[in-house]
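batch_manifest entry 22 of 60
target: Actin-related protein 2/3 complex subunit
source organism: Zostera marina
requested by: lab member K.T.
priority: normal
notes from requester: please return tokens only, no post-processing; we will run our own comparison against the previous entry in this batch. if the run fails, retry once and flag.
--- input ---
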Amino acid sequence: MVSIQQFSECITCHAWSPDQTMVAFCPNNTEVHIYKTVAEKWEKVHILQKHDQIISSIDWSIKTNRIVTASHDRNSYVWNLKMSEWVPSLVILRLNRAALCVKWSPEENKFAVGSGAKTVCVCYYEQENDWWISKLIRKKHNSSVTSIAWHPENILLATTSTDGKCRVFSTFIKGVDTRDSRTGAGSRFGEQIMQLDLSHTWTFGVKWSPCGDTLAYTGQDSMIYFVGDIGVSPTAQSLAFRHLPLRDVLFVSEKMLIGVGFDCEPMVFAADGSGTWSFISLLEKKTAPSGSKYGSQFTGAFGKFYGQSKHGSSNDLIEPAKPRGGAHENCITCIIPIKKEGETWTGRFSTSGLDGKIVTWELENYIDILR
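--- output ---
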């Protein structure tokens, strides 16, 4: 099931409120627009104005209802809702290049900012001065940090960069993190746990699986990389596909991943029983036919992948032809899950892109197949 909403001519990033009634996005300028559903219609309720250049990333915390923004103006702000107004808090980043990506940690006691200064800022709140201060991970990247992802345990942070590498760091901060939350793989802030040299091009869109056992990221050469058993005996797989490169990815489950990018259509990847990942199909925007339990081109390809083809004659994966009239009409730059605090995620996620649309996808039926 797909819900499509045209908000602007172009959207660089978006995020949902904790109760999913509001969405915040940047219409490719210096502002954040917040829309709310009123009587099944979207109405603009807030405009956040503080940055001087294009906002590159937004994240809306589920537990604390805070919005954090990052911009090409080298600044970041944490926005708190006070008396129906969003008030910005100062963040000390100490960057001399653009802030490119930002993400709250799972515990929301800190957030990380990747930058064009080859630096990652890990920020935490200092109550005495009423500001957010940063500790820097420096001299580890050889080029711009394009994306970041927090491990579910709140300590490890994965990054991708235009130097073609993916790295994993410890972000343990004394006085902010508890010793109980410290992972076994490294405890010193900024310690590099792992460096992955699987790609020879720019890398983007790093994500951890829900349990944190698998790490995935993409390359500009239409490749996607999966690293499993991290912390034990890591295994890596490089997967090429014939479509245009991806910009971002999202794990739907431990065995299923959605990738989005220049092809304007979400791509479905899945792992078989041995843990080998393969491309399944492009994700259709239409709902499954009422006469079939799962229907659609996606299920046909999935059946072939697991040897459950209707004809029962082959286990070979046949790539379907690219469907016409997709939900997006330009590059998809952002994909995020949609869920409330404490609830079990049922596969709802949204995408936004350079066509100015925010598209909501429903995948609950497909998740049941993969569990």
